[in-house]
Amino acid sequence: MNTSQKIIVAVFAAACAWSQTGPTQDSRARLISYLDGIARTHLEQRRQSIAQIQTSQDADRRKKAVREKILQLIGGLPEHHGPVTVKTFGTLEGEGFRMEKVAYESLPGFWVTADVYLPAGGGGPFPAIVIAPGHGPAGKPENWNWGVNFARNGIAVLAYDPLGQGERLQYYDTEAKKSKVGNPTGEHGEANVQPMLIGDNVARYMVNDAMRGVDYLIARKDIDAAHIGAFGCSGGGTATAYFAALDDRVKAAASACYITSFQQLLASPTGVQDAEQSLPHFIEQGLDLADWVEVFAPKPYAIVSTQADMFPFEGARQTYEEAKRIYGLYKAEDRIQWITGPGGHGNLGPISMPILTFFTTHLKGSAAPPTFTAVRLEHREDVQCTPTGQVSTAFGGETVYSLNRQRAEALLPPGKVLAGKADLQRLQARLPGDIRSLTGSAIRPGSPIPAVRVTSTAQRTGYRLETLSIPSDGDSEVTGLIAIPESAGAKPAVLMLDSRSKEEIAAIGGEVDRLARAGKIVMLLEPRPTPVGAESVKSPYLGLYNLLSLRAFLVGKTIVGLRIDDTIRAMDWLCGRKDVDRSAIQGHASGALGIVLLHAAVLDPRIGQVTVENALASYRMIVQQELHRNVSEMVIPGVLRKYDTGDLLLALSPRPVSIVNPEDATGAPVDDAGFRKELAFVFRSDKNLGSPDRIRVVSRVAQAGSGLPKMRVILVGDSTVAPHNGWGPGFCALLASEATCVNLAKNGRSTSSYRAEGSWDGVTKALSDNSGFDASFVLIQFGHNDQPGKPGRSTDLATEFPANLRQYVRDVKAAGGKPVLITPLTRRMFRDGRVDDSLAPWGQAAMKIAGEEHIPVLDLNSESHAAVQKMGPVEANTLAMAPPPAAVAASATTGTSTPVPKAPAVEPRGDPSAMFDYTHLGEKGSAFFGRMVADELVKSVPAMRPYVQH
Predict the structure, then answer these.
(1) pTM value?
(2) Which residues contact 351 (CB under 8 A, 6 or more apart)?
């Protein structure tokens, strides 16, 4: 076997494993407790500072300081003033109001869609309120009820779409007619990652949208510029709090179902939430949610709370009491109000009148009680502004991604080429401080050796394997293992970082086993956070670490920094062993942990040769690419203002580095030429330093038949996977000879019936005989027959279906296989030009289980749905097992799929006859979707890439 073949084997051994067992959920809970403990310390210090405020002058000084801090945390506000460019799209007349549909530029080319509600009588000028909706996908239609009622009571309203909502999706899929990344919080989270890397926050654009809305309003003759208010609920409550705090023109504000206290929020089941609600360093800088209210003092402010809100009611009470004291210093206790009501999040119906009264009192100066009549929007298109329903398709323009990329290009200098050793020494002197400051890493090499516990021991041929428990911050711990060869004397060592199962990586024949048999001490570390947990997945693009990252950011920590500390602790313990040759310690890491190892090696010179595989090539790539996947655990706020991965590589000089299979921001491979182009300044610097070959780049590309480990892929599912009529045959045809494809899918089966009839026993039996295979992947796709209406097969979406999938996954793991879930293939039925999407909930359930079980998932449902939508019904019909009947073909040209004559109402359990339908696949369909599955598989399971033919 040649060198490149050995590397492929090594990469494969590490990359094709997932965690089967590991720390209990208590380990993750202890990490969260540690972070919350840091928060409590900062919040207590803030409480003491607030207690020192005894006069209005004291309060003014704090207000000034708080505003400066907030602006610093969000990256300042965009510098764009002057007249606002506006597009108009017609008006709507109603009882007691008139509504104008507009779009205005908050930045050049960055359009905000909005509805302007005006009182029907008189020409004004009217007081006006800027209203932001919650995090619902509809956007401004949520505020139809408020817009109408405010207008009827003599107050104009600007109800706008926040970015990522309504007509302003930042990642709009023109084929699927929806966001590529998920719900609005997913849009906000995805849009926030890139600004965070340059020290900004997506909130800067949100605040600017509202402020430019005021610019537009006060330029109108029918608006009273001296009486502008702000109001919003949930995400709109957040937007209102920020906007009101930073725009002096706002004279009265009410934030609903958002204001609480971090003391209560962090301890609640909800915890931290959306991207803009969790500003990095916010708590560390001595701030709390009460500051949004107090910086507005002494102007009228209403905290609006519901008693069963996910934003804790007790926290709202605490904030109200604190803010009331601050308002009292201004002799303005009557201007701070706590409006409360029953029910859960967003239940403002019972307290609509007090909210309306608050604004009529403070914006109109009216003592007369207002009138309120709940109204419902009948037709959403009545409030739609753009002709197409989306800014991106109506008139294009900028997005947060494009604006941030332009800003980054202006702010960030290109990578600096080092002229010689003096430049290198300056970089090596500066970088450790920058790393610690930005990541929150606190442990320094040579710290007291941690008291590592050996929890189990196993004797193997030639070495001993010990399972370890390593103390970390607070009460948290890190697990790992160490393989110790039997030979005497000090031995070279390898520190491995891998988030996947230590049991599998250490299996006989695996990487740990191979290195230990070669006489090296091998320490495998599972850095925090483990397990990944089952947090709400805001977007499949953001991954499973997003919310935990946001929690860490609030207190000045990062997941990267926490893992750096774990790595250095492990090095302290390793170097303290008498059987370790401290001059010969190598570091190996994969995936997101490759970034951790590069940082740790810069801080710890005891780590000699460094190898990272399947790791992000550069942070700048995230900024340069519109979309990114699963980078939340690698994000370091403000990192690009100080350094990038190339600087880390240079700071490791003269230590050798191997880069195996580098990836871009989406997880796609970056070839040797692309990597060298991206990091050209690094290679030029190494040449100037006299070590042009110090960094070795190894591509993942390999030729089939070249000595790859033997692989088996087992397909499990229903007829859309099965031989003769599913995508399985097309998929299997793409695999190289080193991969055996076994299609055990059967027609008409569900997650319940496949097991009940004994078919699953055949899968587990096959897994029990793994002779001749280095690994077995089991690809599982169900959903079609789990839907209602299939007697004896249907399962409950909320309970049975996920439970069945989870058991399949755990069975595969227990049998030594590698489970991969696949969301169900779309049906190809159209109605009025749109593809039926009834299987989407079953796909979402599968994705949730995959996240909870920490295994790969292929979102075939979304990918196939988008592809079929793009094809249209005529072309989609060519994917079936037979040509469509004449009536079906004619119907397809109208954009609607007509029912197939004499088609069975329920899919048969046996092989379907070779007739046309909208579910099963002929040869063309099998090849098309088989290729789709193969392409998604190599993205999610990089170890499979050499086995898929292109």
Answers:
(1) 0.77
(2) 304, 306, 339, 340, 341
